[in-house]
Sequence to fold (239 residues):
Amino acid sequence: MNTSSPTAPGSIQIVPSVLPADFARLGDECAVLEEAGVDRIQWDVMDGVFVPNLTFGPDVIAACRPHAGVMFEAHLMVADPDPMLGAYVDAGCEMLIVHAESVTHLHRTLSRVAELGAQPAVAINPSTPIDAVAHVLDLVDMVLVMTVNPGFGGQAYIATMEPKIAALRQLISGSGAAGASGAGIDIEVDGGISAETIGGAAAAGANVLVSGSALYRYDEGLAHGVADLRCRAEAAFRA
Ligand code: DX5
Fold:
C-alpha cells in the first residue's frame, strides 16, 4: 500500500537522487533525506542495457519504503519497462517515469501505469525532441527533461536543454492538457542540478528538480542543501 501523498502540481519540488547515498544503509538514508526536507525521493532504476549502469530493483525499493513517508518516484532507465511496472508500484512507488525511447507503445504503457494506480510520467533524453510527448500529455502528471545523458550521477549539466524546457512549457500550456490527474503537468529536470545550474532550469520552466551529487556535496549538510536549492529555484522559476 502506498503511504505518501502526491506532491502539489506546479509547486517547486526538490527531489534527491539516491545514487550518492550509502547503498549499505539505503533505508536509513531515505529517513535522513525526509528529515532534510525533500519533497520526494527518486530511485534511479538502471538495467545495464538502456544505460551502461546497473542499480536496484523493486525489492530494494520495497525494503526502503517503510523508512520514509515521502513519495517515491521510480525513474525507469530500462530497456523494457512494461513487464515490471506492477512490481514498482507494489514496491511503494507512487510515480513511474517511463523513458519515451524505451517503449514501442508509449501511450499504452502510460495508460497501464495509471491503471496500476500510480502517477504516470514520461522522460526524454537530451537528443529526443519534445514532439515525442506531444500526444501523451493527457496521460502524464510530469515530463522529465534529462539534462545529462542517463546512466551516471556527477555529470555536467547540459545547458542547451533550457530552450527545450521552455518550449515544453509552451507546448503544455498551449495544449490545454490537464495531465493524468487533471491537476496540471509538472516539468522535472535531472542531471547536473546544483546551486549554479538550478536557476537556469527553473527560469526555463522546470518546477521539479532532481539533484544527487550536488545536494550531497553541501558541507553544511542535506537540510541546508535542500533549503538552498529550493530558495534558488523559487527565486528563478517562471512557469
Ligand atoms: C542519470 C541520473 C542522474 C542522477 C542525478 O542517469 O538520473 O542524473 O539522478 O545525478 P546528479 O545530480 O549527480 O547529476
Confidence is low (pLDDT under 50) at residues 1-7. The helical segments are 26-35, 58-64, 85-90, 106-115, 162-175, 198-204, 213-216, 222-236. The radius of gyration is 16 Å. Residues 17, 19, 44, 75, 77, 148, 150-155, 190-193, 210-214 surround D-xylitol-5-phosphate (CB under 6 Å).
